[in-house]
Structures
1.
Amino acid sequence: MSLGNKIKELRNQKGMTQRELSEQLNVTAQAVSRWESDEVEPSVGTIKQIATIFNISIDELLGNETEPVVVEKEVVVEKPIIVEKPLVVEKEVVVEKTVAQKPVLAICDYCNKPIYDENELIKISVPHHHGRGNSNVTYTNSVYHKACKEKKDAEDKKRMEDYNASKNSKRLTISLIVSPIAALILFFIFLGVSQQAEQPWQLIVFGVVAGILAFTTISCFILQNNFLFTLWLSIASWSVKFPGIIFTFDLDGLKFLIVMKLLFAVLGVLISIAVFLLACAIAMPLSVLVYPYALYVNIKHKKEDKDFLN
């Protein structure tokens, strides 16, 4: 008997309608109807609730055959044999076999089949963080067969490898498009300025160098498999905290406050620009040395991911 027919039979035995059963399970009556017509199957948690409502075991609800345990019992039957000589009683040994049902320990979340053997049972507790910080954490318990857990781990690893291969390929493609464009823009800026200079070849050479540095720096930032962006960001985020301003509550004091606020704002912008240029001055020369390594790591990981997928 299918699971849907079993649910329908148990519901009719209880004298319940599909709506009454759906209200106890917190689902719609249409969902119960689809179960009973075997269009879809209820989830593992819903199967447990249905078994509880009808006061039967999960194994009985699923209609799974349990693993038999053979118990041998010797029964002595005395069978008289009549002969001409004195009565002799012959003993016949009869072996009775009874089947003891093993309990269902859990339902595998991967294959949705019952687990009978405790040695095959693997429990996994997965934390889920809600909001910021680690204050609101809930745990979801999952149960697997040992073989199903190994198969699931292999599938998760392959999925992660697919994701990393795609991500590395996209980053390399973006770097090969964006970096040359930025380098050419910077070169043409210096080329345009050189037309009005007394010695244009110096600006042209400087433009070529600046273009190369821009290409390697932006490529290292996009590939994200090196330390250069972290170094640049740590230097560029430097800031200066200005002291508080003491002033009097009169017209001159307010004027002094406004002037000092504007002065601090201008100084803050100038310091930010200077720090940004300092970070670029440190990161760009280093990028010439870092870029070959970053390109090698990206291509190597891409090749390893391809070999893994094949």
2.
Amino acid sequence: MPMNEAQLAEKWRERADRALAQWLPPETLNPARLHAAMRYAALDGGKRIRPLLVYAAGRACGVAAERLDAPAVAVELIHAYSLVHDDLPAMDDDDLRRGKPTVHRAFDEATAILAGDALQSLAFHVLARGLDPAIPDRQRLAMLDELALASGSRGMAGGQAMDLAATGKTPNIAELEDLHIHKTGALIRASVRLGALCRPDVDEPTLQRLDHFAKCIGLAFQIRDDILDVEGDAESLGKQPGVDQALGKATYPALLGLEDARREADNLYRDALASLEPLGEVADMLRWLGRYIVERSG
């Protein structure tokens, strides 16, 4: 009996978890405390949305799941590192992440910094060593470049810097969109593009359609996060709600109000779906993930 979308997503989550556990150094290997912190940060929790986007984009391009494990692991390691560092006292100073104490609380601040650094490095090791040999070298380099740009000052790290600079201020809608395109959207776009690039002969029009989908859904993801920070609860979110408001963060509900923020997320979702129309049924998992992202409660 064929699996529905939710069942397939759960199968991919389990697949990503197994691959993560295999690539992460064991706690028995020195430095044991660092490796324990890395595994604590990356395993046992998380929705795995970025790996799911890798698998779904690859599926839309006709790529088998086993050829997508390395990029799925790589993007989740980058995401895990970013959460460890975002939670630090110098950043958002959070005590709870994924329903358990943050890494700097469970271990210590220095170990958390090193764990984040090591998770980031491991992501590029996985992408360099774990890709299917059938993927041409030119495409492998493009994938490494994609992840590096999405993670650095022109992507996620730059977005975090912009977020810190905007704290306590009231940016206009264009500035807020630019901030979130970098902070959250860059890694989501990279996830989709890496999945597509696992097909050696993927064509540019398909890449452009998938990239537009990812750009729209990445921004919708952040808007939904902003909304959940206002009306979510700690049990569903796995972290304390209201943190953005308490820190004076720039958010869509703060700028537009809750209802207009919801409408903006819905508009982005519809725009994302429109970009997938030429791909037909092979993109159904991307459509399902898009709906999940804008409707999720945690």
3.
Amino acid sequence: MKTKNILPPTSKRVFLRTDPKINADIRNQTLRYLDIFKNEPGLSERIKQLSQEWDTERVMEVNASLLILLSSYLGIKMSRFWFLLTGTVAAFMLQHALQGWCPVLPFIRKWGVRTSDEIYAEKTALKILRGDFTGECPNAEDALNKTEKQ
């Protein structure tokens, strides 16, 4: 009998807690980007853009921080009841840190926000297609597959 790991590997925790259909949609979008940029002069520019892309962690950290600041302010100025929201957000962030899931994550992933590993995979695949590494890769899917095996 196979047991489910309560604390998944850090780099795979969000991917493992995301609906497989959404993971497939995100991967297919990455393949579309790779196909668009593989022979374009803008390939190097796309690599630079990927360094600026926000990943799931950054989006969640900003959202949680804003909610904590707002609920703390409202707790001080309005009613102590607002501190319940502060505690709830903190509990969900702890759950996310340990298990890779929290209530907002499915929405963030559905919006197409990728993990840092998914962004890095596209960046590396573009570098492979550009010829930065030894050996040639005939197509975008082979390049992406090479990055995922690392």
4.
Amino acid sequence: MSEIQFFSENVDFKLKNKTILKNWLLKSIGNEGKKAENINFIFCTDDYLLEINRKFLNRNTLTDVITFDYSEQEKVVSGEIYMSYQRIVDNATKYNQSVDNEINRVMIHGVLHLVGYDDNTENQKEIMTQKEDYYLSLLS
């Protein structure tokens, strides 16, 4: 059974439209030829995510999202997606987006990592951005 859950760590934030977002994420995963198992989205502070970045990725930089893939089967996705609410709010302002739109973009970005996309090169970033835009258009 597919289960997508949303949590908050050290941040006062409650996600709106959870059912709509869950259905959208499940459909997006299905469109990529995968099936969702357990996916947890954890909204947190910059400091919380920075500590994860230092501890697990040996990076000392702020980021908006870190994805941990726990999938054990090729066609099944499972994992945790940590999202800095502070970075999302700052990036929404920076890119002239609503906070809700930026949350959705970061959520689908994390899901794209779980289904197998990377963003280490410029070409990979371009492909991920195109995928994000496509899946965001399905939500509107």
